[in-house]
Amino acid sequence: MDFRLTDEQAALRESVRDFAREVVAPVIAEHYERHTFPYEVIRQMGKMGLFGLPFDEEHGGMGGDYFALCLALEELARVDSSVAITLEAAVSLGAMPIYRFGTEEQKATWLPRLLSGEALAGFGLTEPGTGSDAGGTQTRAVLDGDEWVINGSKAFITNSGTDITAMVTVTAVTGTNPDGSKELSTIIVPTGTPGFTVAPGYSKVGWTASDTHELTFDDCRVPAANLLGARGRGFAQFLRILDEGRIAIAALAVGLAQGCVDESIKYAKERHAFGRPIGDNQAIQFKIADMELKAHTARLAYYDAATRMLVGEPFKRQAAIAKLHASTIAVDNARDATQIHGGYGFMNEYPVARFWRDSKILEIGEGTSEVQRMIIARDLGL
Ligand SMILES: Cc1cc2nc3c(=O)[nH]c(=O)nc-3n(C[C@H](O)[C@H](O)[C@H](O)COP(=O)(O)OP(=O)(O)OC[C@H]3O[C@@H](n4cnc5c(N)ncnc54)[C@H](O)[C@@H]3O)c2cc1C
User: How many angstroms does the Cα of residue 126 sit away from the middle of ligand 1?
Assistant: First the structure.
């Protein structure tokens, strides 16, 4: 395998890197502090085509691939994870289910706005009572004439309550399979549908400039035609979406880990103690060398998973490995970068404080580290 980037991929990485430094970096700390959504940054990301990266031009996309999305996510997260997760969730969880499983009519209705970044969509799988165990889904949808009637609630849904959120797709129990297990299906619920309520945003430890809400559905009626893909295919659909999403989260985690290296090198050269820069001490140099080692190897892991996916090879185990490794080293690097910054690392005005607060969720969202280990073990025949 050759992991060197093509000229086109390198140019994309360069342009997103410049955007992150010039447009995101100057404004994001204030959004983070105030817990506000960075609409203007998101609008500009839309103009750059980032929301359409892995989609074909026929549906309004940029004609790139999932690897291109990962490169963009890494460069954004190198500066800020709230913006990166907004893009990751919008593409991988919001638009991708419609693109992969939708009818041509559903694609025509939703994709142009989602792929231009003009609108966002959420993906509602997790519920207040169940996350890792999706078989525990309680939300129900019953077909009444030509409408689905949905009752239940979803927890922690990204991009579900912004001013530009157009819809969410939700998983719901729609019956019982012949083996007695729950029949799960996925249904599109447009924003503003009566009976669909978006709770105020959570008070989060990190990703505070991203949008996350609990959703409730109380006799919420949508047309039968809003079923996404075949009835009963909900389980298979979200497994596919989450397998891909893990590669994207790994890329985001690598970006955060690399951002920790960037900030640590800068600070180690500037900060003096005992009459010389702290970076002159081998203890600090080795810490930064180890951080670079971790970011580099985690990057190779997600490049490998993405490459396998793009050539059509099985990639489930490699995606889980990439996500598990990258999220673990992101937490490590955030802790070490904070240590290198001393007391200033504990001050929110320093990017490493944001990295620290943003790192932990990477070991939880889109499948916890324990779930990744379960996937790897199962794939090894255990
Ligand atoms: C900011 C944020 C954004 C999110 N965005 C979305 C979104 O857009 N859409 C969405 O659907 N969800 C979203 N989530 C939910 C996220 O994916 C879940 O929180 C995650 O999957 C874990 O589920 P849980 O919180 O219910 O934990 P649980 O499943 O209750 O797990 C609790 C703990 O038990 C462990 N555990 C569970 N089962 C086992 C087992 N068999 N063996 C060993 N350990 C086990 C877990 O690993 C974890 O450590 C988001 C969460 C957050 C915090």
Answer: 7
